[in-house]
From TrEMBL:
Annotated VOC domain residues: 4-124
Cited PROSITE patterns: VOC (PS51819)
InterPro entries xrefs: Glyas_Bleomycin-R_OHBP_Dase (IPR029068), Glyas_Fos-R_dOase_dom (IPR004360), VOC_core (IPR037523)
Protein's name in the database: VOC domain-containing protein
One Pfam assignment: Glyoxalase
Amino acid sequence: MKVTASALSLNVADPSASAEFAKSHLGFVEEMAAEGFVSLKRADVGFNLVFLKTGLETFKPARIAGDAGQGLLIALVVDGIDGEYERLQAEGVPIVTPIETEPWGERYFQMSDPNGVIIQLVEWM
């Protein structure tokens, strides 16, 4: 098997709101969109970030078509975590876990998008 691309698809009530958040604050760009669907990319991220409107009939299997976010967290490793923290705070992004450093060297913080999807930025110290 050869994998040629990958995506993380999340069910959310308002795909456009999550997409705008990721574009405005995290530098993603829209690759494609349709009714109830937005696919975003970044050249330096190894997957597309896809937001699907909750309840789409095309989502399969239907038994897992609920809201995204239960126990899910999107983690992006970055350089300059303190600068990113300050930038996102200044932009008014909802920070749900303030910046902290774990004993094993992981420095991170977490934010929430308009649909409650948790995004963590992390830098290894």
